[in-house]
Amino acid sequence: PKVLRQIASLLQDNTLPFAIRARFMAIFIASGDPSLQALYKQLIGASSAIIRQLAALGCGAMRNEKMLDNLLQLFNDEDSSVRLAAGMGVAALDTSNSNKMLLEMLEQGEENLRLVAAETLASQPPEGHKTLKDAAAATDLLTRRAAIFGLSQIREKWVVELLEKAAIEDGQWVVRNAASQALENFQVISPFVPTA
Question: pTM of the prediction?
Fold first, then answer.
């Protein structure tokens, strides 16, 4: 407890760089201490946007559904990085309620939150993949664009066919452009993948 109190103090030290403070948050997460929920609730109300951002990420990493309401409060935060971290936190919870919120983020959130939601859904087969496939045909332009972004994370044949169709037939150039870019990325081999 004494060590964790010291780390909590350092976490709130504004003179330390973000990366160091994020590592302190990782220590909290790895500790699995039962008092963390109370700490995160306290940090969510902090005046510092960096602290609120780290608290949102910590809430998600705890994977405790009781933190969902706290994360939802941060969707109205004035700082976009805090709102984005709250979206990531909700996505990490992976419960039925948080998945409903994820779908709402995809359909109605600000653009960055939609992209987070789409990327998260891409990592949750088969339901997440089905949701993205449906969203690619939605009437809302931003929903379709986010769905294309999410689909580009899935390396399967049916996705290529869907992206090809969107690149040619979608009524909005923004969606066609996103689909074309995703198809190009499918063709490029990552320079970080080792050769045989």
Answer: 0.71
Q: Which H, E and C letters describe 17-85, residue by residue?
A: CHHHHHHHHHHHHHHCCCCHHHHHHHHHCCCCHHHHHHHHHHHHHHCCHHHHHHHHHHHHCCCHHHHHH
Whether the CB-CB separation of 132 and 147 falls below 8 Å is answered with yes
Output the 3-class SS for 159-191. HHHHHHHHHHHCCCHHHHHHHHHHHHHHHCCCC
Quick one: 90 exposed, middle or buried, by C-beta within 10 A (0-12, 13-18, 19+)?
A: buried
Longest dimension (CA), the chain: 61
pLDDT digits (tens, 9 = 90+) for 79-135: 888 888 888 888 888 788 888 888 888 999 888 888 888 988 888 888 889 999 999
